[in-house]
Design a protein that fits this description.
The complex is a heterodimer of chains A (245) and B (173). Chain A is of the alpha/beta class and 245 residues long. Chain A has 7 helices and 10 strands. In chain A, 31% of the residues lie in helices and 25% in strands. Helix content of chain B is 65%, strand content 8%. Classes of the chains: A alpha/beta (245), B mainly alpha (173). At the A-B interface, loops of A face helix 6 and helix 7 of B.
Chain lengths: 245, 173
């Protein structure tokens, strides 16, 4: 783990100009402590405040163990804060039951991981339809939605392919389509370019950026400064704390 | 050196006026390194002196077209056929400044490194923003600018990573 202090004036990134845009994700003093009540409680995340608005892509950088994964888990409602609040699409997750959080996740949040994004036994189209069908939407409605989502990421022609018949970059496009199908507007991406060569990685950043510009919001965890530079803002985490935004 | 070789390479495509050469050079390298017309003529005069370029004709208004000599053609051919020598490092102000900072009395080397890293990330973001603003896929002049932007982006990223490592070395006694 690096002991390097993150530059204090790191990335003078502009604040969102259109502050009137709705906030899709808000962390307020969010803290997550593991092993509370034990001898050595670990502050995986320590008082982090962050907002992501519609049209905004925010990158999170930091050494391993700095709290990036915890931040994503909280943002996606997979975990709840020990103190502070996390508001996803207007709903505070702190007081929600496990079941209600699952429903919120399904309704509002999409994920893109480094790999193993897609269900191998389903075609690209079926993969994108899946979250909508889990929402209870009919196949008749889910199908055209999924096609539209695939078109928006430039892989409509791959609708009937299975994941193993697609390149890594094509699979990531399908994963982005799935993350933002239907009403979902918040995409959480964990090293989405990690397994890709640099040009394919750039193409994925371009797609992610375009989908965000079209009215979504994105939180991107990456160790790659080149890809973080596609974001509107870069926040740095170190030992669970936000160093600079 | 790079201007001299570039002008020779462009002249290999046909005779040109000085201002045309300048335009070609700028447009085809993404308008990244502007050169003034005086520099073009100084370079051309040296190339004529060295026997690599000669006057091809002169208009009534005094403007001169230039072309390559046989030796000039050979020089261009050699340039394309060999790699640019990287064995002699360019004087890099950042590397020099960081190196000096660890021995300069009263200078906080780590602070120097942090400031510089912030600057590397700033330009990284700026170049990326410009890349986003180019037509996609980029063609012609835009494509040339894209290639140069990629170069600048990779260089800024490499510098940021190097500075990270310097910071780690400084923090590890």
């Amino acid at each position: 783990m690096s002991n390097v202090e993150t530059p204090s004036s790191a990335v003078e990134s502009e604040q969102p100009q259109e502050t009137g845009r709705p906030v899709l994700l808000r962390l307020h003093e969010a803290t997550r402590v593991h092993g509370q009540g034990t001898a050595v409680p670990v502050h995986a995340l320590n008082g982090v405040s962050l907002e992501v608005r519609v049209g905004e892509l925010v990158a999170v950088m930091g050494p391993s163990g700095s709290g990036k994964s915890t931040l994503l888990h909280l943002a996606g409602g997979l975990d709840t804060p020990t103190s502070g609040d996390v508001v996803v699409d207007g709903v505070s997750i702190a007081g929600l039951s496990v079941k209600a959080r699952a429903a919120l996740r399904r309704r509002s949040v999409g994920y893109v991981f480094q790999d193993l994004n897609l269900v191998p036994a389903l075609t690209a189209l079926e993969n994108v339809m899946l979250p909508r069908e889990l929402d209870g939407v009919s196949t008749r409605q889910a199908r055209p939605e999924a096609r539209a989502a695939l078109r928006e990421v430039g892989v409509e022609d791959l609708a009937d392919r299975f994941p193993e018949e697609m390149s890594g970059g094509q699979q990531q496009r399908v994963a982005i389509a799935r993350a933002l199908v239907g009403p979902r507007r918040l995409v959480l991406a964990d090293e989405p370019t990690g397994a890709l060569d640099s040009l394919t990685g750039e193409a994925i950043m371009r797609v992610l950026r375009a989908r965000v510009d079209d009215g979504a919001a994105g939180l991107l965890v990456t160790h790659d400064a080149q890809h973080a530079a596609w974001a509107d803002r870069v926040v740095f985490l170190r030992d669970g704390k936000m160093v600079e935004s | 050196m790079s201007v001299r070789q570039s002008l020779l390479a462009i002249l290999a495509e046909g005779e040109q006026y000085g201002y045309q050469l300048r335009h070609e050079f700028e447009v085809r390298t993404g308008r990244t390194w502007p050169i003034n017309i005086g520099q073009v003529y100084t370079t051309l005069n040296r190339l004529v002196r060295d026997g690599l370029v000669e006057e091809a004709g002169r208009q009534d208004d005094g403007s001169v077209t230039y072309r390559l000599t046989f030796a000039g053609r050979e020089e261009v051919e050699k340039w394309w056929q060999t790699a640019v020598d990287r064995g002699t490092p360019n004087r890099d102000e950042v590397a020099i400044k960081v190196a000096l900072s660890v021995t300069a009395p009263g200078v906080d080397a780590l602070a120097v490194v942090h400031r510089q890293k912030a600057e590397a990330l700033r330009v990284l973001q700026e170049y990326t923003k410009e890349k986003r603003s180019l037509p996609h896929p980029a063609k012609g002049e835009d494509f040339a600018r894209l290639l140069v932007l990629d170069h600048l982006i990779f260089a800024a990223e490499a510098e940021a990573r190097w500075l990270d490592q310097v910071g780690q070395r400084l923090a590890t006694p």
